[in-house]
Amino acid sequence: MNGILLPSADGGLRLYRPSRVPLGPFACGPARSRVLYSAAHVAASPAPDAGGPVVDWEATLAFRHRLWALGLGVAEAMDTAQRGMGLDWPAAAELIRRSTAEARSVGGRIVCGAGTDQLPAGRPHPLAAISAAYEEQLAYVESCGAGAVLMASRALAAAARSPEDYLEVYGGLLRQSTRPVVLHWLGPEFDPELKGYWGHEDLDEATDVVLKIVSEYPEKVDGIKVSLLDAEREGDLRRRLPPGVRCYTGDDHHYPQLIAGDGELASDALLGIFDPIAPIAARAARALDLEDPVGFRMLLDPTVALARHLFAPPTRHYKTGIVLLAWLAGYQEHFTLLGGHRSARSLPHLAGAYERADLLGLFPDPELAADRMRGLLAAHGAGA
Question: Is the distance from CB of 139 to CB of 181 less than 8 angstroms?
């Protein structure tokens, strides 16, 4: 296979010779030692976006089947699916309906995001309206037969004046939920509008608030997804959770060590990075099930370089690299994102994502991936 001239951040070009050794086929049942969810992306259609999001349903659902076949669960309609960045509530509701039906057909594990994004953006909303929006989405997710992830709400972050406002909203939701939910703590690195969530910018004080919510309704909380990119803080929160409440790492920088655990406690996972590295994550989960922690780290540690690259600041644009890799891998026919977010990352950034993924063997057909990368570069007047 011929080499590719990839653009570098300094404006130069470097020769890269693509891999010829992809990962082989792998299928496994759900992991026994951890609960592992991949927050899955949405494949967009290249059709003009005149009347709202245009989803390629066939490719989108086929990708979820691929995750289930690997033994991973699907976290549906989350940030990776571009909630708040191109995927509106009507489209998210359709995605949830279709995906839960597909999950039932194969016995796949699924949870779905419930938020407040049906409220108009750019203006304040009273707490009652925010609670009602949450309630609508929570009821919908549960009516589809899935557990809910109570997503962090931009509307609530803007409206809340104290920690008591969070206690009021979340307490009301937990009292009426019909099955345990996953709480979602998304840090400002992922969404700057969520700064000061739980009523405090100080993270120690914010931790106390969320633990108060969990401790008052432990039977209604399956776990909490923590996306703060702070492994030490996550470990501290994990130690303070009530028995039976899971800590789902959402830390796309430190996930191997957090899932492996400290010898006493370990995190489960709900991760966007599991979308592109699913074949490796599944193999690593199997190693844990076989009580092979060394093999687990040998498989998963090399993926961190790709994860840190995809989730580099501005972190919220990680979806662009994830969709690029799905296209290069042949899982969809177009490198297109909802809302025009394909242009959110630079060409050198995309080239770096391609190179790191190729070195991990993540492309089933390395030649197809190389040809598509060449075409992308040529369309922008770069590479060869």
Answer: no
Whether 128 contacts 168, CB under 8 Å: no
Question: Strand 13-16 and strand 4-7: pairing?
Answer: antiparallel
Please tell me the pTM assigned to this model: 0.96
- In three-state secondary structure terms, 258 is helix
What's phi and psi for 33, nearest 5 deg? -90, -20
For position 19, what pLDDT does the model report? 86
Phi and psi for 194 in degrees, rounded to 5? Answer: -100, 10
If you write DSSP's letter for every residue of 69-127 in order, what string do you get? HTT-EEEESSGGGTBTTTB-HHHHHHHHHHHHHHHHHHT--EEEEE-STTSPTTS---H
Q: Calculate the CA 59 to chain-centre distance.
A: 18
In this predicted structure, what is the pLDDT of residue 1?
67
Rounded Cα–Cα distance for residues 37 and 110 (Å)? 8
